Sequence to fold (234 residues):
Amino acid sequence: MKTSAELIQEAKKNAALEAVKHVKDHFIVGLGSGTTVAFAIEALGKRAKEENIKIMGIPSSYQTFQLAVQHGIQITTLDEHPVIDITIDGADQVTPELHLIKGMGAALLREKIVATASKYNIIIVDESKRVKVLGENNQTVPIEILPFALALVERKIASLGGTSIIREGKGKLGPIITDNGNMIIDVNFGLIRKPKEMAFKVKNIPGVIETGFFVDLTDLVYIATENKIEKLEK
Fold:
């Protein structure tokens, strides 16, 4: 008999398959980051091969780039294709209004660029990521910052009621450095009832490159539960 964790993994794979059905021949596809998106990338590569459809992917991280190449997905860039047909990504939290927190994989800047360039954004999550209000369960908000501005940003974040921690690497001393050469701080704001307003305030701090608030960007969410795939639409 399958465990709860195994059932959720299976459901995530099925949710990824549903998301991939939205991709059509000659689509430019934004590829998010994370373990759930890995299922979608594998399914995309399989579709491209078995159905002989031509798709090109724009990865949001080096890890995603490697995975896409591994599964035979042709890679392109925003310079060549500034408008993306569809992006498939994951999230760390999602509300009924389709507000998200993203960035626990430290790829939030490129993920947001890809999402903003997309005509349609699909998010895949398991049911543990569904919340009523962002910030539940002590969920932190990742923020990518310029290292030079660390002290200033931390002080300004504190004035907004946030508690920040520098994200450190595993297996090495010192902070995580993003693909863009910046640092990540994880900020606990408590319950965030006005994410759009908070995102604006944080983004306006000099030295903040991007925030993990993804507001008004998502069109469709597939939520994987043990028994079914639920769908939230904009």
Notes: The radius of gyration is 18 Å. The longest strand covers residues 121-126. DSSP finds six helices and 14 strands in the chain.
